[in-house]
Amino acid sequence: MAKRVESWVVTDEFWQRVEPLVPVRSAADRIYLRKPGAGRPAKPARLVFEAIVYVLRTGCQWKALPKERFGSASAIHKRFLEWEAAGFFEALWKAGLAEYDQMSGIAWRWQSVDGAMMKAPLAQESAGPNPTDRGKKGGSKRHLLVDGRGVPLSLVVSGANVHDCKRLDDVLSAIVVDRKSPPHRRSKHLCADAGYRGREHLHTIEAYGYIPHVVDRRQEADRKRRDPTKKARRWVVEVCHSWFNRFRKLLVRYEKLERSFLALNHLTAAIIAFRKVPMTTNIIYG
To answer: How far, in Å, CA of 232 to CA of 33, rounded?
Structure first.
C-alpha cells in the first residue's frame, strides 16, 4: 500500500522553481540580525518555504506550527514578512504565469472578473461589515481577474462591504503580466455578472479595451439553451475562487495585516498557475 503524502509537502520540482527567487539576506542584514557567536543560524530557505505552505494548506495559526518539524514559529513568521517585503510571493506568481504562458499560452481572449467574501474576525486592514451576514464586523473580499482557463491574472483585497464594481478599475489595472496588444478588439472580452451592470462600469471595461459581457446567470443559461454552440465562460472565475478556498488559511482570514493576507493569496495564485503548466508533476501534493 502506497504511503499517503500530505498536501503541504513541497516537491523537488516545485522547489527548483522557487529557490532562484528566494530573497537573499545581505551581509549587513546578517550582522544586524545575528551577532557573531550568538543565537542559532538562519533556517534553510526550503524549510521556511515548506512551513509557509504548511500554514497555507492546513489553516493553522503561525504559532501552532509543529516545532519538531519546523523549529521556532516566530522565526518562520519573521522570514515570511521579510520575503513579503521583498516582493517574493508576487514574483513567484509572475514566474508561474510566465511558465504557463510559455507552455500553454495565457488564454487572454476571454477573461472573467468577480469577487468572493470571507470572514475576517481579526483583520485590522481591508475589512468591513459583511452585507450577507447581518452586517457583522470583520469581513474581507478577494477580487479576481482570470483568463479563459481560470488562472488568476490580477488580485485585489478589500473590505466585505466594498461592492465588486467599486474595485473594477483596480483589478483591471493590477494585472501582474503584460500582454501584447491584440490585433483586433474582438480578441479581448470580459465576462462579469449583473453586479457590474451600469453605464459607469461598462465604460470602465471598455476603457481597458474589452468587449463587455455583463449578464446574470439566468440570461447566461437562456443563451446557452437557445444556442447550444454558445460556450458558458464566466464560471471559470467562480472555480478559481473555489481553488483558493482549498487553501484553508484563506477560508477565514485571521491575518491582521493586509500585506500578510495578500502575500498568502499571491502564493496561492502562484501554485495555481504552476499547476496549469502541462507535462509537469504536482508541485505540491494534494
So the answer is: 54
**Scanning the structure block, which residue is given the C-alpha cell 478556498?**
245
C-alpha cell at 135: 452586517
Q: How many residues does the chain have?
A: 286
pLDDT one digit per residue (tens) for the chain, 286 residues: 445 556 678 999 999 999 999 998 765 455 445 555 555 678 899 999 999 999 999 999 999 999 999 999 999 999 999 999 999 999 999 999 999 999 999 999 999 999 999 888 877 766 766 665 555 567 899 999 999 999 999 999 998 878 888 899 999 999 999 988 776 667 899 999 988 888 899 999 999 999 999 886 566 555 555 555 556 678 999 999 999 999 999 999 988 889 999 999 999 999 999 999 876 556 665 5
Average pLDDT, the chain: 85
Nearest to 81 by CA among 284, 223, 264: 264
Q: Show me where the domains of the chain are located.
A: 107-255
Q: Which of 198, 115, 190 is nearest to 158 (CA)?
A: 115
Q: What is the DSSP letter of 157?
A: E
CB 111 within 8 A of CB 148: yes
CA angle 13, 17, 18 (to 5 degrees): 110
C-alpha cell at 175: 494585472
- 34: exposed, middle or buried (Cβ count in 10 Å: 0-12, 13-18, 19+): middle
Do 267 and 54 meet the contact criterion of CB atoms below 8 Å apart? no
- The architecture of the domain spanning 107-255 is 2-Layer Sandwich (3.30)
Cβ–Cβ < 8 Å for 272, 152? yes
